[in-house]
Automatic annotation (TrEMBL):
Keyword match Transit peptide: no
GO function terms (MF aspect): kinase activity
Chain intervals for the UniProt region annotation (Disordered): 388-407
Species this chain originates from: Streptomyces coerulescens
Stretches assigned to coiled coil: 171-202
Catalytic reaction annotation: ATP + protein L-histidine = ADP + protein N-phospho-L-histidine
Record's protein name: histidine kinase
Enzyme Commission designation: 2.7.13.3
UniProt keyword list: ATP-binding, Coiled coil, Kinase, Membrane, Nucleotide-binding, Phosphoprotein, Transferase, Transmembrane, Transmembrane helix, Two-component regulatory system
Membrane-spanning ranges: 52-72, 78-102, 114-135, 147-172
Stretches with biased composition (Low complexity): 397-406
Keyword Transmembrane helix belongs to the record: yes
Residues of the Signal transduction histidine kinase subgroup 3 dimerisation and phosphoacceptor domain: 210-275
Length: 443
């Protein structure tokens, strides 16, 4: 059964132990081992006092003090091993030596220190056993051949030092491995959380870019179509009684433009509805963290690559003549000149070029109605260039007469489109009193 990060956070940490112990049960274990070791060494101190010719009390006190050093095994494992080696000639401290050597091998000390102290313990045990068995053979207490003495000494020394040393090395290596795995798991969890946050940021950025793109599209559609409709409606009002035939023609143009505007708006709203439905399905399902990050990254990558999937259907350069014809029908004197060999471009490039010309013509309708306008399109080797330039309006009050509002976002939107494709956009007034919009887009 797996445990999530929130569940792990709810588990209370283990109670800290006193002094140098991490936990209370570690302190209880070490104190218990120290008491047992002190009792063992105290009992062996009685025999040591008789052999050394000292008072029994002194031997017992010496043994208790030496055995109780085992309490410090986690704090100073080297001192514990050195004390066990020091009391080997007194033939005491068996538990002290075994546990001390195990603790030393399981610690984080350098291997050369562990090997040196283990070798000293092995040699000390070997010498003590050899001397004790040789004295027993000489006194007649032990009856076996001389070859048994070195063999038994080496075997005993190995039996006392090798098992705790190997077990300590194994436990220390396993502990370090578990700590490393735990650190890697914590690091991986932090990385996943960071990736999720970055993915959410990229998804939010992609959503913002998509909203900006849709706002630009709706601005282009509404501003241009509605501006032409207002111009035609004003003309229709002016000629309704004088020229009924022209009034009928203008009314038909207004209807066509309105239907085109509604069609383009319906397409964009369909894209928004499909995107909202997809988002609702994603919120309603249990999606893994990696899938959320991958989906958000994919959405951001699609936006970085130009959003070709979302803009595959849109206006193209082949519709440019129709666009200019609509402006001409609204009373604008507009000319189109094309340089270079006409060819097809990526849908995003053609749509951007079309929108630049469309927005520039819309600005002419708003701010310079009736001004003569020149549209130039140049197909070059590695780029496509476009320029829309108009002269001064014949009647400065004509723009305000149509009452066309302006939000000031047209030039900003055109520049954003062009710069997003790595192009250059320049706009500004001309010396003749008109206005010029120029853009170059890499092909």
């Amino acid at each position: 059964m797996t445990t999530t990060g929130e569940e792990r956070a709810e588990v209370p940490p283990p109670e800290a132990g006193p002094w140098w112990w991490d936990r209370v049960r570690s302190a209880v274990l070490d104190v218990s081992l120290g008491v047992v070791s002190a009792l063992e060494c105290g009992l062996e101190g009685v025999r040591f006092a008789g052999d050394a010719g000292i008072p029994v009390a002194a031997g017992v006190v010496f043994g208790v003090l030496a055995g109780s050093v085992l309490v410090l095994r986690r704090r100073w494992p080297i001192a514990v091993v050195l004390v066990s080696i020091a009391v080997l000639p007194a033939q005491m401290g068996m538990l002290l030596g075994i546990v001390g050597l195990y603790t030393l091998a399981a610690s984080e000390l350098p291997r050369r220190i562990i090997a040196s102290l283990a070798g000293m313990s092995f040699v000390g045990t070997l010498i003590v056993m050899f001397v004790w068995m040789r004295q027993g053979v000489d006194r007649g207490d032990l009856t076996f051949g001389d070859w048994v003495v070195p063999f038994a000494s080496v075997t005993t020394a190995l039996g006392v030092t090798a098992p705790p040393l190997l077990l300590g090395l194994y436990v220390g290596a396993r502990r370090r491995l578990m700590e490393s795995l735990r650190e890697r798991a914590d690091s991986l969890e932090r990385e996943l959380q960071l990736l999720a946050e970055r993915a959410e940021e990229r998804a939010e950025w992609a959503r913002g870019e998509e909203r900006t793109r849709i706002a630009r599209e709706m601005h282009d559609v509404v501003a241009h179509r509605v501006s032409l409709m207002v111009v035609h409606a004003a003309a229709l009002q002016a000629v309704a009684r004088k020229d009924p035939e022209k009034a009928v023609k203008n009314a038909a143009l207004v209807g066509d433009m309105g239907r085109q505007a509604l069609t383009e708006l319906r397409e964009m709203l369909g894209v928004l509805r499909s995107g909202a439905a997809t988002a609702d399905r994603a919120r309603g399902a249990a999606v893994p963290l990696a899938a959320v990050g991958a989906a958000a990254a994919a959405a951001a990558d699609r936006e970085l690559s130009g959003g070709e999937e979302s803009t595959a259907e849109g206006p193209c350069l082949s519709e440019l003549e129709e666009l200019i014809g609509q402006s001409a029908a609204a009373g604008m004197v507009v000319e189109l000149s094309v340089e270079g060999e006409t060819r097809e471009y990526a849908p995003k490039i053609e749509q951007t070029a079309y929108r630049v010309v469309q927005e520039a013509l819309t600005n002419v309708h708003k701010h310079a109605a009736g001004a003569k306008t020149q549209v130039r399109l140049a197909h070059r080797t590695s780029e496509i260039a476009m320029q829309v330039e108009n002269g001064p309006p014949p009647e400065p009050s004509s723009a305000s007469a149509a009452r066309l509002p302006s939000g000031g976002n047209g030039l900003v939107g055109m520049k954003e489109r062009v710069v997003a494709l790595g192009g250059v956009f320049v706009s500004g007034p001309t010396d003749a009193g008109g206005f010029r919009v120029s853009a170059v887009i890499p092909a």
